[in-house]
Every structure is written in C-alpha cells, then in structure tokens.
Amino acid sequence: MRCPFCKKNNCSQVLDSRPTKNYKAIRRRRKCQNCLQRYTTYERIEEPNSGLLVLKRSGKIQPFDKRKLKKSIANACHKLPIQDEALENLTDDILQNIEQQFKQQISYKNIYQITIKHLKKFHKMAYIRYASAYMEFENLDELLQPLQVFFSTTTEPPPTASTTEPKTQHPPQTQKENPNETKENKNP
Ligand SMILES: [Zn+2]
C-alpha cells in the first residue's frame, strides 16, 4: 500500500479492521509509519461474472459489468459528499435488484430505470444529474435504433414505432363571470 500523503510504499500499520454494513468488504483504518497520517482501505471480493448480458444503446450485446454501473453512479455523485463505501453499497443494491428481475439479458434502458429508482431515494442531486446525463442521449430515434438493430439480427420483425402524438391539450377553462353576484341588500 502506498501512503496517499507521503507516497511511501509499504509502511502502513493497520489500526482497525471491520466489515462494512453489508458484509461485502473489509474496511481497514491505516496509519503511515513514515508521515503518521491516517487513511482507509477496503478489501472486496472480486465477484464472479453473473453471466448477465446487456443490450447496449449501440445495439451491441456485452457481458454485464458492475464496475461500469458503479462508474456511471460515481459520475452522477462527482464532488458530492458521498463516500466510496456508500457508492459501493448502492451499486450492490442495484445489482441485486437487477439480478432478481433479469436472469439472462437486460437492456440499458432497464438498467437506467432500476438505477434511477434507487438514486431517487439515495441523493437528490445525483438523481437529477444521472437523469439529465441519460436524457442527453435519448430521443425517440435513438431509443428505437438499438431495438431495430437487435431485431434485424433475429428473424423477428422490428417493433412498430409508436408515433409521437402530441399530448392533447385541453384549452384552459375560461371562468365565466358569475352574473348572480349582485348585491341584494335591500333591507331598509
Ligand atoms: Zn505517509
């Protein structure tokens, strides 16, 4: 381990070791014996590939990569006061949710939907950032394109594009002036 302060290698003393809340990592508090600064390290299991495939925006299909999921969340949390442990726990929760619902393949849109649901409860600003980063790429054509690429490689016909009907707008109801509002104070 290289000290993040004085950059000297292999001179840390472990002061404390304990599992994280979800027991998926060991958190170690270390003290550099050169500069005496303290820092934290995490030891985690390198999780085996679940075999889950992702249908990407480009139409390509790739193995699911937890690190990419975490990176997309970390980008949304950039410079927010959120610790790596919280990010890791959140990623684990999302992954667990994904694996409950999808056994073989998931589309990037489903990943987005599950992630955004968790982020909404996790941190408001990260939620807004994640949503806006996603929206930047999305329009109807881009949403349909990967599906068409996907279906064109199989024998199934492409999905029928639902036409974007403008939302029917109800004209604002004009409030009629009430003619009965005449004062009837005729009492002498
Ligand atoms: Zn040091």
Description:
- There is one protein chain.
- With 188 residues, this protein is α+β, with helices and mostly antiparallel strands.
- It folds into two domains: 1-45; 49-152, no CATH class.
- It is 38% helix and 17% strand.
- The protein contains five helices and six strands, in the order βββββααβααα.
- It has helices at 66-76, 84-101, 108-122, 124-137, 140-152, and strands at 12-19, 25-32, 38-44, 53-55, 61-63, 105-107.
- The strands form two sheets. It has a three-stranded antiparallel sheet with strand order 1-2-3, with no helix packed on it. The protein has a three-stranded mixed sheet with strand order 5-4-6.
- The protein is elongated and about 60 Å long.
- The N and C termini lie far apart (98 Å).
- The structure holds zinc ion.
- Residues 3, 5-6, 8, 32, 34-35, 37 line the site of zinc ion (ZN).
Which short descriptors sum up this protein?
188 residues; alpha+beta; three-stranded antiparallel sheet; three-stranded mixed sheet; binds zinc ion
Write a compact overview of the structure shown:
The chain is built from 5 helices and 6 strands; from the N terminus they run βββββααβααα. The protein is of the alpha+beta class and 188 residues long.
Strand content: 15-25%
The tally of domains stands at 2
Radius of gyration (Å): 27 Å
Show unreliable segments.
Answer: 161-168, 181-187
Question: Count the strands?
Answer: 6
What ligands can be seen in this structure? zinc ion
SS summary, helix count: 5
Q: Helical proportion? A: 25-40%
Q: Tell me, what's the shape? A: elongated
Please summarize the sheet with the most strands.
Answer: 3 strands, antiparallel
Please give the order of strands in the largest beta sheet: 1-2-3
On the 0 to 100 scale, the average pLDDT is: 80
Order of helices and strands: EEEEEHHEHHH
Structural class of the helices, strands and pairings? alpha+beta
Q: What distance lies between the first and last C-alpha atoms, to the nearest angstrom?
A: 98 Å
